């Protein structure tokens, strides 16, 4: 009896759905749920469907375009790197050179033990 094992060729690749990569699928899903709740709230509040439907469909189209552009521009991890880079300080300012001078005079321990 010979066993046949199939190898999954997608291991290590990002999840993709209709051109959206990784976390952008979740962003789109959350946006669609928000639009569904907004539609329900506006409909229950008694706002006319002639006003609600264009708002929801326009917002949905904008959501699809925005998430698609973000996915194409930044890729799998690029958006997180973009926001992280914005938090870097423009420069670091020291009032004294003492920190660097004390580093120069200390012996370096290479972890070789005794």
Automatic annotation (TrEMBL):
The lineage of its organism: Bacteria, Pseudomonadati, Bacteroidota, Sphingobacteriia, Sphingobacteriales. InterPro entries: DUF4133. Pfam families: DUF4133. The keyword Membrane applies. Keywords: Membrane, Transmembrane, Transmembrane helix. The chain crosses the membrane at residues 24-45, 51-72. It comes from the Bacteria. This is DUF4133 domain-containing protein. It comes from Pedobacter ureilyticus.
């Amino acid at each position: 009896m010979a066993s046949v094992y199939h190898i999954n060729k997608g291991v290590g690749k990002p999840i993709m759905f209709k051109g959206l990569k990784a976390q952008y699928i979740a962003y789109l899903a959350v946006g669609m749920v928000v639009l569904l709740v907004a539609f329900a709230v506006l409909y229950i509040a008694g706002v006319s469907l002639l006003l609600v439907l264009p708002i929801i469909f326009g917002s949905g189209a904008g959501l699809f375009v925005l998430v698609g552009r973000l996915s194409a521009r930044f890729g799998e991890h690029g958006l997180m790197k973009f926001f992280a880079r914005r938090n870097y300080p423009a420069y670091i300012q020291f009032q004294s050179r003492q920190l660097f001078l004390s580093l120069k005079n200390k012996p370096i321990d290479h972890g070789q033990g005794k």
